[in-house]
Amino acid sequence: MGGAIPTRPGWYRNPQDPRSFRYWDGRYWTGRARPQPPWADQGASFELSYEDGDRSIEGPAHSRELREPVASGASSREWLAWRPRQAGPSWHRTPALSQAPPPRALAPPKLSPSRRPLLALMCLLVVAVGVVVSSVAFISPYETKPTLQAKDEEVAARFAGGVNKQCAAALARYRGALAWGDDGPTIDAAAHRVDLLSREIGSMAAPAAERGPLEEWLSMLQQFSSDQSRYATIIGSATRLSGGRFIARPLSPAQQVQAAQMRQQATQLAARADAVSATLQLEACRLEPVPAS
Q1: CA-CA distance, 187 to 175, in Å (whole number)?
Q2: What pLDDT is attached to residue 36?
Q3: How many angstroms from the chain centroid is the CA of residue 66?
Q4: Helix (H, G, I), strand (E, B) or coil at 141
Q5: pLDDT, mean over the chain
């Protein structure tokens, strides 16, 4: 083709791969490509003409191939529906010497009276087997569903018990520091413990029905621990008094704004995480301390 741009739609030699053909839609090269057929090696023309376009040939075809008769569906159906060929008269067939009368059709044998009860018994047996199979097929789903439901509830209860046990042992001493602590290292240690707890819970085998809410809750815990670590970095170390209390170090106005934003964001995340943990029956995993009554 010499690199010339085609003037009408059709199959042309691929400008990127001369060993294949590519379809030109009249404006751009499309993604439709075909390997080079054997007749293209002989230098034959392979552009489809307009009069041959109604034959719906998928891919480039030679003009002489387009003019070949296409097998119709009727011929294929006749080939599939094979019938034995009727033998016609020929020179090698010898006429019959005498036309014998067709044999008489024998009467079907009658069932003897002694075997009729046996046939009736077999029929009753078949009907009984069918009734038993149908009853089992219809009753089995209803019998196994409560069993599966009870098993899922048992797995969920076991999982919730294990998680509550871990949260009760890990969060009891850190809730106060995360809620209103003033010492940065103490808050950072508590946030690190929350992050470890979320990873430990994520590695446990959770019930399939609770995986979605559980992943959302664990993501909130990780974001909460990240915000608390950033808050601890902003406020820094506090001064420890003799009675065990801490006095926060003075902050600049900009640091005060950043610290307030981090603490507010962490508080909101804690409230949302506690709402999700309540739906998962993980009461021991709450982040905010329970207010004293």
Answers
A1: 10
A2: 79
A3: 45
A4: helix
A5: 77
What percentage of residues in the chain have a pLDDT greater than 90? 31
- Single out the residue of 290, 288, 292 nearest to residue 177, CA to CA: 288
Compute the distance between CA of residue 275 and CA of residue 278 in angstroms, rounded to an integer: 5
Does 127 or 53 have the greater pLDDT score? 127
Q: Give me the residues paired with residue 247 across strands.
A: 239
* Joined tokens for residue 85: 């060929």
Contacts of 55 (CB under 8 A, 6+ apart): 66, 70
Q: Please count the other Cβ atoms lying within 10 Å of the Cβ belonging to residue 272.
A: 16
* Statement: residue 222 has pLDDT above 90: yes
Give Cβ neighbours of residue 46 (< 8 Å, ≥ 6 apart): 11, 21, 37, 39, 40, 60, 61, 62
CB atoms within 10 A of CB 219: 15
Q: Which amino acid is at 154?
A: E
To the question of pTM greater than 0.70 for the whole model, the response is no
Intra-chain end-to-end CA distance of the chain, in Å: 91
The model's pLDDT over 32-82, given as tens digits with 9 standing for 90+, comes to: 888 877 766 665 555 555 454 433 455 666 555 544 444 444 444 443 444
Q: How many CA atoms lie less than 13 Å away from 59 in the CB half-sphere? A: 9
Instruction: Report the chain's C-alpha Rg in angstroms.
Output: 43
Q: Give the residue carrying structure tokens 């439709």.
A: 32
Percentages of the chain per state (helix, strand, coil), in multiples of 5? 55, 5, 40
State which amino acid sits at residue 242: S
**Burial call 225-235: b when 16+ CB within 10 Å, e when fewer:** bbbbbbbbebb
* pLDDT tens track for 257-282: 999 999 999 999 999 999 999 999 99
**Among 217, 219, 229, 241, CA closest to 185:** 229
